[in-house]
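Why do we care about 3D structure at all? Because function follows from shape, and shape follows, mostly, from sequence. That is the central idea of this module. The next example makes it concrete: a single protein chain, its amino acid sequence, and then its structure expressed as tokens.
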Amino acid sequence: MTRKRWIEGGVLLGVVALCLVWWALSRPAEQGAMAEVWYDGTLAMTLSLSEDGRYTLAEDPTVCFQVEDGKVRFVDATCPDKVCEETGWLEKAGEMAVCLPRKTRLVVAGESDGPDIIAR
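And the structure:
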């Protein structure tokens, strides 16, 4: 093979590898996935991502969550800055939203196979 063919083959292989990485990182949560709600360092409740609904934290009724289409999010918290609500929908294992004033952490359970940090 000529040098040009080796370069073309390498570029093609690189594009395929990038496509596979993108596909692996963009997969939604599997059906039956769970979300954990932690309050003050203790597991307070577990939410099934396959059952749509709105849930309130028993330990702090001012904090509400919504599950829809295999995703979960904070929908209402009486914190001053609302950063937890602005985090948006969580669907991949390892994704997390935290409300520090309300001592609440929402985590999609499971093994994360993606990056540790996602900048938005």
